[in-house]
Model the fold of this input.
Amino acid sequence: LGEDQLLEDMATMDPSMANSLWRVAHEMPEEELQWLTFSYAGKELEPGGEDRDVDASNRARYVRLCCKASLLYQAQKGLQAFSDGFF
Done:
């Protein structure tokens, strides 16, 4: 999936998060990116992510990984709720 499709999918589940990630991908200046690392909700998006800063050259990767992590988390929550309904 492309970055824009992931952001569209994200917008259906979490519009605020999708908006923030769109801003990272398209509007955020380099000096604001420096405060981001490759982590999401306290977990590394890739090995060494806590120590890897987001910059203009890797912002698309960061957005893609955040979308995937968030969508996976939402799906897991839904599956857990479904499973809890049976037991």
Summary: The first helix runs from residue 3 to 13. The radius of gyration is 14 Å. The first strand starts at residue 39 and ends at 40. Strands lie at 39-40, 43-44.
